[in-house]
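Still learning. Show one?

>
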Amino acid sequence: MKNKYGALASLVYELDKPVGVSFGDVEYYLKRLQQIDGLILEPGVGNGRFLIPLLKAGKSVVGLDSSEPMLAHARAALTKHQVSARLELNTFQGYQTDERYEAIVMPVGSFQLIDSFDTATELLAHFRNMLSEKGRLLIDIDPAHSIFLGEPSVRKWRLSPRDCVTLSTKRLAIDYVSQVTTELHRYELWEDGVLQKTELEEFSLRWWGANELALAFKVAGFTDIVISGGYEFSRKPSNEDSIITVEGVKKT
C-alpha cells in the first residue's frame, strides 16, 4: 500500500493538480526542452498535468506510471485536449525499452517517491541507459525542510454541493539516517454526509541534498551537471527555494 495512488488518491490528485496547473515547472521545462525534437520520457506521468502542455508544444512524449487509476485520468486528458501520447503502465525500475530518449524529465519531486537510496541510484543508471547520445536527465527535488517539517492536516474537495472527498495525513516516522519520511494518508469519499469509501496509503518520500543528487548523477555516468534553484537555470539554490532542479547529460 506504499505510494500506491489508488482510485481515491488519483481522484484527489486530479482535483488538486489538474491539467493547466503549473508550479513553474511547465514554463521552465518548455524552455529547457525547446531544442529537443526526439522522444521524451516522463516517469511518474500521473494525470497528465505536465504531459499535456508538452504535447501541445509539439513534443513527442511517452508517459510512464505504476498507477492504473492515474493513467485513466491521463487518458481522459489526452482525449479532452485532442493530443496523443503512448502511456505505459509499469514501475520506474521495471520499464524496459529499446527506444532511446533525448530527455527524461521528472518534475516536482516525483523522484523522491523512491524511498530507497540504492534503488534510486540504480534507477539513475537505468535512465542513462535509456538516453540517446548526449541525452539529458532533468529531476526536481523538494528542499529537505519542506518534507520533514510537514504537519498533520485534513483537506476537502467538493465533487458536488452534497458530495466531497477528504484527505487526512498523519506522520508515522522520520528516518533521519535514511532520509525518509513516512505518512499515513486516509482518503474518504462522502456522499450526502455518508461515508462511501475509504482508502489508506502509506506514503514515503526520500529527501535529497542538491549536491548529493548531483554526485549520484556523476556516479551514474552523467556530465555537465547543473543545479538550479527556483526554476532559474544555473542559479545557486537558496533556503527560500521551494524546488531544486538537477540536470545532467549522458557521458559518451
Remarks:
- Residues 125 and 217 are 8 Å apart (CA to CA).
- Helices lie at 7-16, 25-32, 51-56, 68-81, 117-130, 144-148, 210-220.
